[in-house]
Amino acid sequence: xxxxxxxxxxxxxxxxxxxxxxNESILKRGREKGLLNVTLRNIRDYTEDKHKTADDSPYGxxxxxxxxPEPIFKAFEAMKTEHPGEKxxxxxxxxxxxxxxxxxxxxxSEEQRLIVLLCGHYEAIDERVVRALVDEELSIGNYVLTxxxxxxLVVIDAATRLLPGVLGDExxxxxxxxxxGLLDHPHYxxxxxxxxxxxxxxxxxxxxxxxxxxxxxxxxxATLLKRPELLETAELTGxxxxxxxxLKRESEA
Length: 253
Known about the structure:
The protein is of the alpha/beta class. The protein is about 40% helix and about 20% strand.
């Protein structure tokens, strides 16, 4: 059985923003293992004037600049020539898009198509690009960034770390926050006591059942206190619901 592999094309005016992070940590490991391929395509390479102009003022007036359609269309045409017959999913990183969550990251980690991440910059992208080339708009939060490059890195990282073989521990990605709809439990390491602060006894007991029980309880507690809305859609057992009732009573006492 072939290992899952993710293929990304990033269309950007500033490829240098992505180069450093792609050569560090988990993303570097994924690329070295052949599980992740990322091609950075500079939109300016597809302009025709000597100044490599990729933006212009908006029709109707107003502040800011708008990315021109011509170089973006040409970049797509070149990409399709280099990947003949390959199916493509094109995502525009935009504050107007659906907010990225763990469920969407998991879906992207299983994507077999070439994923094209289109990074906007300046004020906006010409709407004809959005209508003709974009399949989906994706946001990483309800705020505005200077460009889509940082958002593209977030998307790549969130999907890549879910590929089997990328992380050191195959299960660690699914034990993280949101893996089962809940926030993660607290973590501790040596020493067992530091400046009067002790590691919980359950974690020092060596009793795996007690450790898992403690972790589950703390995960539920963290979710209840920090992100209670997640409990509405989390995967909860009958024992989880009883624990939640206990935790609610404790918080109200």
